[in-house]
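Retro notes, structure queue

What went well: the backlog is down to a handful. What didn't: a couple of records were mislabeled last round, so from now on we paste the full input next to the output in the thread. Example, using rRNA adenine methyltransferase from Azospirillum melinis:
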Amino acid sequence: MNAVTGKPVPAHDPTFETAEQRQARVDLAAAQRLAVIQEMSEGIYNHFTLTVPGHDDRFYVSPLGLHWSEIKAGDLLTVDYDGRLLDGKGPLQRSAFCIHAPIHRRKPQHAALFHTHMPYTSALTRLQDQRLLPIGHTEAQLIAEIAYDDDYTGLARDPAEGERLADILGDKTILIMAHHGVLVAGRTISEAYDRLYTLERAARVQLFAQWTGKPLRELPGEMVAHVHATITGGPLAPGVASGHELHFGALKRLLDRQNPGYRE
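Corresponding output:
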């Protein structure tokens, strides 16, 4: 039932989708199943959203109650930026709307928004200093992309929280949220997922290094800037458009072997 109009909401009908919209659904469902395999999910909670291709006022999101390992393309809800359910069956998680809708509206360049409580990055948010440190190659690729929310405000139950987070995110693509988790943005699902994966790996390495109790070796600022400029300045190999597309494609092949069915 549409909460605003009081009218029944139609079930998802792929007949009216474009090929791009269908592929977007498939990839978003794949991303959520992959997050389970790679231990970056939290059961039925957290939220991945994607702007519906061809529209600037609505996004896809999974219904609350489905475990991420069972999500299929046809399960995804279509929700507008005012919280109206336009397509699909199942409840819309309030925090998904309150965090994601304002950011999608204000940052249209970020089609994909992934919010998780993945363990290693979330562990950093519990530290007095939650920064990702410039101690290595992977970290140097990410540091310029990170904004930090140092003021935990509780559970997101009002869109004003999404507005606040959009302000903090600014022109970055990663928002590390104190006492909470992380929000990662991308122009595409593959870009956002690759960024999420890389961040969690970097956070894990930092924690492992800190657990030794030995002094950390930090890179100088100019080297961090050089690494970031290199990774964003050109292809990984001749004729390769983007590493994140190759990575996500490889992960979907892994998913096809381990947990197929997400395309339905």
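Agreed that this is the format going forward. Reviewer comment attached to the example: The radius of gyration is 18 Å.
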